[in-house]
């Protein structure tokens, strides 16, 4: 495979995170890099499912996110608290389009404390 194909495959795989977590109406999904090339596609796909989308991005991109129905949250110190404030009922899934990971993600969403990779989902209730 030529070197030129890898970036396209990586973008497709990261946008595929929306399909992997299968967000549903009423659920909340956090997407990092939400205003980037991959993230901007991921937030639009997630919004089409009816899920609430929280987009992690620089403040300079917050207006764009709002215009697409996304709740913008800035990176930096206190990001977990900002995510909790934006999603008081918790977060159902996290999609990291930056491939940098977010070690604090479990503390924002799940009591298990497990560390997710670039795509993570809280188990759905079977009740």
Which bin fits the share of residues in helices? 25-40%
Number of helices: 5
Domain module count: 1
Proportion in β-strands: 15-25%
Q: Which architecture would the CATH scheme give at its second level?
A: 3-Layer(aba) Sandwich
The chain-level structural class is alpha/beta
User: What's the level 1 CATH class?
Assistant: Alpha Beta
Output the radius of gyration.
14 Å
Global outline: globular
CATH homolog superfamily: NAD(P)-binding Rossmann-like Domain
How far apart are the first and last residues' alpha carbons, in Å? 46 Å
Low-confidence stretches: 1-15, 110-117
CATH topology: Rossmann fold
Protein described:
The chain has 127 residues and is an alpha/beta fold. The chain has one domain (10-101): Rossmann fold, CATH 3.40.50. 38% of the residues lie in helices and 16% in strands. The protein has helices at residues 5-21, 37-48, 62-67, 79-86, 105-109, and strands at residues 28-32, 52-56, 71-73, 93-96, 119-121. The chain has a 5-stranded mixed beta sheet, with helices on both faces. α1 runs parallel beside α2 (37-48). The termini are far apart.
Keywords:
5 helices, disordered N terminus, Rossmann fold, single chain, 5-stranded mixed β-sheet, 16% strand, globular, alpha/beta, 127 residues
């Amino acid at each position: 495979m030529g070197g030129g194909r890898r970036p396209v495959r990586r973008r497709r795989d990261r946008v595929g995170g929306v399909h992997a977590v299968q967000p549903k109406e009423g659920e909340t999904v956090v997407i990092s890099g939400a205003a980037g090339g991959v993230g901007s596609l991921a937030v639009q796909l997630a919004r089409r499912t009816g899920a609430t989308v929280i987009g992690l991005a620089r403040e300079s991109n917050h207006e764009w996110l709002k215009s697409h129905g996304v709740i913008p949250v800035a990176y930096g110190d206190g990001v977990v608290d900002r995510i909790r404030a934006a999603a008081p009922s918790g977060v159902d899934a996290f999609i990291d389009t930056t491939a940098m990971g977010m070690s604090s993600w479990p503390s924002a969403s799940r009591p298990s404390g497990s560390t997710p990779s670039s795509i993570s989902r809280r188990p759905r209730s079977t009740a």
